[in-house]
Amino acid sequence: MRIRFFAGAAEAAGLDEQHLDDQLTLGELRTALSAEHGAEFARVLERCAVRVDGARLGDDDAVPPDATVDVLPPFAGG
């Protein structure tokens, strides 16, 4: 899966994109990313919307191996 980080999520992760080959649920992916990128990233991730191929999934839903996952922090403005 391709994981793209935007704005504050990219800053906290220290990268804009990464790839994983693991079969994970969305909840497992959140846990794995938090463990890999540390406490500051975990705090940012709590406030982020996570979209899988543009759709919202539940934490128990499987993320397809060929999916694009976007980690989107709240954006200001209007």
N-to-C terminal Cα separation, in Å?
A: 31 Å
Instruction: Classify the beta-strand content into a percent band.
Output: 25-35%
CATH topology: Ubiquitin-like (UB roll)
Give a quick account of the main beta sheet: strands, pairing sense, barrel closure: 5 strands, mixed
Number of E-type strands: 7
Low-confidence stretches: none
- Helical content, roughly? 25-40%
What is the CATH superfamily label? Beta-grasp domain
Any idea what the radius of gyration is? 12 Å
Query: Strands of the biggest beta sheet: in what spatial order?
Result: 2-1-7-4-5
Give the rounded overall mean pLDDT.
Answer: 95
What is the C-level CATH assignment? Answer: Alpha Beta
The number of distinct helices, counting runs of at least 4 residues, comes to: 3
Oligomer: single chain
Number of domains: 1
The CATH architecture is: Roll
Order of helices and strands: EHEEHHEEEE
Given the C-alpha coordinates, what overall shape results? globular
Q: Class by helix and strand content? A: alpha+beta
Task: Walk me through this protein's architecture.
With 78 residues, the protein is of the alpha+beta class. The chain has one domain: Ubiquitin-like (UB roll), CATH 3.10.20. The chain is 36% helix and 28% strand. The chain has three helices and seven strands; from the N terminus they run βαββααββββ. The protein has helices spanning 7-13, 26-37, 39-47, and strands spanning 2-5, 17-19, 24-25, 49-52, 55-56, 62-63, 68-72. The strands form two sheets. The chain has a five-stranded mixed sheet. A two-stranded antiparallel ribbon has the order 3-6. The longest helix has 12 residues, at 26-37. The protein is globular, with a radius of gyration of 12 Å. The model has no long low-confidence stretch (mean pLDDT 95).
